[in-house]
Amino acid sequence: MKVALFLALAMLGALGATAAAATGAAPGILAGSAALAFLGLAAGAAAAALELRAPDDLREPRTPRGPTSPSPIPSDGVTRPVFGKMWLGALAAFGVLGLVPLVSLARKPGRRVLTGWRPGLRLVDENNRPIGFDRLVAGGIETVFPQNGVDLPDASTVLIRVAPELVNGAADGRAAAAGYLAFSKICTHAGCPVALYRRQSHELFCPCHQSRFDVLDGAKNLSGPAPRPLPRLAIDVDAQGYLVARGDFDAPVGPDDWDRVR
Ligand code: FES
Q1: Which residue among 39, 97, 129, 134 is least enclosed by CB atoms within 10 Å?
Q2: Is the separation of the CB atoms in 207 and 224 below 8 Å?
Q3: Is the Cβ–Cβ distance between 46 and 39 less than 8 Å?
Q4: Cβ-contact 33, 96 below 8 angstroms
């Protein structure tokens, strides 16, 4: 019975790991399920070995020919065919687990990371207080986060307000029409926080390797090693007058190799 129990755990773990990989679950769930699968298989093999071992006091007189005694297994009520099927089931589950790398390969390269931003989620400051429509004046800048997501490392965002006439944002909603622009705070070169803003030239500046980004032109890189613009966060205003996200960033945040695929 112990062998059957361990093999069932191995099957459960292998199938769980496969499901975790397919659904993009947290790495801890995938690792835990895989560990359960391997431990279950190892424990099942060890229990089967103990079952197969003949007792030390087993002595049988030699007979000239013919079979001696039947194998000591199964001895706990699990019939031999069921026992064999359990092993086959465990091996099949491990075969499915072998598809996990293929699941990862099948994902579209460059698939964007989902950060904490979602449509309708309010922009908040570092104290989780929502950002009202009148929070900034033209030339102002503030670091904002998704509501209840201040500790999310890849969601930090710089909110900038420029003179409305500088933004062709009427089609992008009330916030953009009022001069609000929002970009990922994580530099696309090596991930430093892009926190410096030159309001005269409307540039964001990364202090690590001096990349400059033009906030009036989609945060495109003006100079420095950053390979692409800062991802933009489209924002709007809700019925209570607070700034809200219209979705997630329009591109993966940070360097190209930063957790790009999950
Ligand atoms: S990290 Fe920003 S320019 Fe290198």
Answers
A1: 134
A2: no
A3: no
A4: no
- Strand ranges in 112-165 using DSSP code E only, listed in sequence order: 123-124, 141-146, 157-161
| Ligand 1 pocket, residue 206 CB under 6 Å | yes
The CB of 223 under 6 Å from ligand 1? The reply is: no
Cβ of 226 below 6 Å from ligand 1: yes
**Omega before 74 within 30 of 0, i.e. cis:** yes
pLDDT tens digits for range 50-74:
777 666 666 666 666 666 555 555 5
What pLDDT digit, counting tens, does each position of 248-261 carry? 999 999 887 655 54
- Residue 90 CB–ligand 1 contact under 6 Å: no
- List the one residue out of 230, 232, 214 whose CA is nearest residue 222: 214
Q: For residues 243 and 135, is the Cβ–Cβ distance under 8 A?
A: yes
Is the distance from CB of 234 to CB of 222 less than 8 angstroms? no
Q: pTM of this prediction? A: 0.60
Q: Are 249 and 260 in contact (CB under 8 A)?
A: no
Segment holding 245, helix H or strand E: strand 243-245
Q: How far apart are CA 147 and CA 38, in angstroms?
A: 40
Beta-carbon neighbour count of residue 136 at 10 Å?
Answer: 19
